[in-house]
Design brief:
Blueprint: H1 4-9, H2 29-37, H3 51-54, H4 58-73, H5 80-104, H6 113-120, H7 122-143, H8 146-168, H9 173-176, H10 179-196, H11 204-231, H12 234-237, H13 242-248, H14 251-267, H15 276-294, H16 301-324
Length: 325
């Protein structure tokens, strides 16, 4: 689908009579200022398969599926109220982060489709965040145990601190703790909270699985950042950090190392070991991201992002199916 500028370039210029006086009108200073400060948003149609990412449904789906896998593989029940609270919390966090990205960026070259859509409909998303936050507070007060609420508030405080630091803190913070690593580890910790709150749910083995899942989530974020940066115009405006530049040339090695480590850990576990299936899902997820990285030049950035999220969901769904087989 050609952009508006490309389409406009193909429209023939109007013919001006030879006797007419013509001149090229330069934009006034205030008009140029408005052009530079008002964000421009994509007007091309959004394909149906991209909507779950545009509406920030991808992260809640990943969190809920993995929370169910961690609970079921350990023989624990999965209360609907806790899973629902996890889904709403993740959606609010991710949507708020995209809104902040949209406010901080003033041009289309620095915005992806998901950020552009959130910024364009910021009033709607802001209202939905308020409604979801109110519903979450009521759900927490009526249906969640005190320990669950306290754990959620603690993790929520960490997330708020992270958002403030990323969006309003010094730029050098990102070099000390890359955003991709921070997001992956926080996401994995939040997904593991429903398991850790259960009796004997928190152990060294469960912590190790959560850490490896955090590496997988960080790999997901890191891969998407590298893929999109290589294919979009913002690479010309924002040179990559040393971390991103290094990771971009080592994505294959990172994914391969995680895949082998998780697979070996799976082989060392017994069939009834509660960590066996989650480890197998982590290994498969790393393998799928490895394949996507090999095909990065033949797929669009939007397709790569959707497939990268699917690489986290599908292995967990397969592990759940094997668990109930």
């Amino acid at each position: 689908m050609p952009s508006l500028s490309e389409a406009a370039s193909k429209i023939p210029s109007a013919t001006i009579p030879s006797g007419a006086h013509s001149y090229r009108r330069e934009p006034a200073a205030h008009e140029a200022s408005l052009t530079n400060t008002i964000p421009q948003f994509r007007s091309t149609p959004i394909p149906w398969w991209l909507w779950w990412n545009i509406l920030s449904f991808d992260a809640p789906v990943v969190a809920c599926v993995w929370a169910l896998l961690l609970l079921r593989s350990n023989g624990r029940a999965a209360p609907a109220a806790e899973i629902l609270a996890l889904a709403v919390t993740v959606w609010v966090i991710y949507t708020a982060d995209r809104l902040l990205d949209g406010f901080a960026t003033g041009g289309t070259s620095l915005l992806q489709a998901r950020h552009s859509f959130a910024a364009k409909h910021r009033f709607v998303f802001g209202s939905l965040i308020f409604v979801a936050g109110t519903a979450l507070a009521r759900l927490s007060a009526q249906s969640l145990e005190g320990a669950t609420v306290r754990a959620g508030l603690t993790l929520g405080a960490i997330v708020v601190l992270y958002l403030v630091t990323i969006h309003a803190g010094p730029a050098r913070f990102s070099s000390l703790l890359p955003k991709e690593i921070a997001v992956g580890m926080i996401f994995a910790a939040g997904t593991s909270v429903p398991l850790w709150l259960r009796p004997v749910g928190f152990s060294f083995r469960s912590l190790a699985v959560s850490a490896m899942f955090g590496v997988l989530c960080s790999l997901n974020c890191l891969s998407i950042e590298c893929w999109e940066r290589a294919r979009h115009d913002r690479a010309r405006h924002q040179p990559p950090t040393l971390w991103i530049a290094w990771a971009n040339s080592h994505l294959t090695h990172i994914a391969l190392t995680l895949m082998i480590a998780a697979f070996i850990s799976t082989c060392l576990s017994t069939r009834r070991d509660p960590v066996a299936l989650p480890l197998l899902a982590i290994s498969l997820g790393a393998f799928l991201i490895l394949l996507l990285n090999q095909q990065r030049k033949s797929l669009s950035p939007e397709a790569l992002r959707v497939f990268a999220d699917a690489a986290l969901v599908l292995p967990a769904l397969l592990a759940l199916a094997l668990l109930h087989a």
